[in-house]
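User: Fold this, then the next.

Assistant: Folding the first:
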Amino acid sequence: MFFTSTDSLLRILVVGACSYVALVLLIRVYGKRSLSQFNAFDLVVTVALGSTLATALLSRSTALADGVLAFVLLLSMQFVVTWLSVRVRAADRVVKSEPRLLCFRGRFLRDAMQDERITEDEVRTGVRSEGFGALRQVEAVVLESSGALSVVPADRTGTLPTSLEGVRGWSDSPRAPADTTGEGPAT
């Protein structure tokens, strides 16, 4: 059967339109961070918002007000957690993982890669996707808190990249980080 009744179709149209408008307005009120994916917590909230919208649309037992209240709850929780993480360092450490150095000056940091469950092929894929043909063109590859790989190009002047400050496995010295276990330069 294609549909159970015209009432169910009408309900989906009305609840869908109202839920959509409510969600868009709430996202505007709560700010740009609402749909960001800076870390795993943000991803969970985004997925939960989508699931809540689907439930509000398709479940006859879920009233529009219930769905909107769930949106408010999820966005409020995200607001509180991100507000705390900006102001309280301990809260930030609980919510976010540290970025991790995976490759430095052409050498894979195998201990770090093993801890993060990242393969050499995945690092090479990240380097290629940024347009580099060889690892020697790259100063560093970092696994970010969001799970994305960031590729820092090699600086021909020998200047250390300040963007690596705060990255686990990075030191301020010009030598490779201590947990490098590679046998030689990666290619």
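Now the next one, as you asked:
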Amino acid sequence: WGNLKDGNMLYEGSLAPLPGTTTRVRTRLSFFHVSKDTVRQFSERTPDGGKTWVTNYDLIYTRRNP
């Protein structure tokens, strides 16, 4: 599920359990407008129900010149 907040796209959900565990992993994914040709994608997961968050990845996408 997700929505727009302050001009950014924010999503939350859950992933299948990690190997050796039985609990689904709560995650959140954010897309930030950096510039006309650049977007940042930031992914996090929480091991403790949302008290703390760990970075999965932090990516920057830049439009390629045609």
